[in-house]
């Protein structure tokens, strides 16, 4: 049964602005594992990766119905990829949602689906 859906789109220029303004932004949005993945990327890929993770986490918070806040922080949510690159959403360490992420030159967007069996 589908229990939640969430969709989010962000302007990459906005994420770049926030990231340039404060080094805390990236540390707030990405988990330690995601930061390690970010560090391995080429310069060009870094900002779209950060924007995509931001969109995925906001989309997840909508699917959950809480928004980002005390019940659901950016650090509670982690996107992990399988060997082929397919992402999955984890909340507090447990696999919980289906996610799809996309980016273009100007935007990153993500869709999340929550379901129970
Ligand atoms: C829920 C949240 C993700 C919405 O994102 P947003 O960028 O403000 O707005 P969006 O345009 O993407 O989405 C707005 C829609 O989200 C939906 N929405 C709002 N609260 C929601 C909730 N609790 N659950 C599900 N959907 C929600 C609404 O449908 C809203 O549209 P509407 O008001 O026209 O009905 C946002 O409130 C939030 O928690 N943001 C995190 C803020 C933050 O920490 N930002 C870091 C910047 S440094």
Automatic annotation (TrEMBL):
Its main location: cytoplasm. One of its GO terms (biological process) is fatty acid biosynthetic process. It is found in: Cytoplasm. GO terms for cellular component: cytoplasm. GO terms for molecular function: holo-[acyl-carrier-protein] synthase activity; magnesium ion binding. It catalyses: apo-[ACP] + CoA = holo-[ACP] + adenosine 3',5'-bisphosphate + H(+). Residues 4-98 form the 4'-phosphopantetheinyl transferase domain. It comes from the Bacteria. Its EC number is 2.7.8.7. Mg(2+) binds at residues 8, 58. Keywords: Cytoplasm, Fatty acid biosynthesis, Fatty acid metabolism, Lipid biosynthesis, Lipid metabolism, Magnesium, Metal-binding, Transferase. Its cofactor is Mg(2+). It holds the Pfam family ACPS. Belongs to the P-Pant transferase superfamily. AcpS family. Transfers the 4'-phosphopantetheine moiety from coenzyme A to a Ser of acyl-carrier-protein. This is Holo-[acyl-carrier-protein] synthase. The gene is acpS.
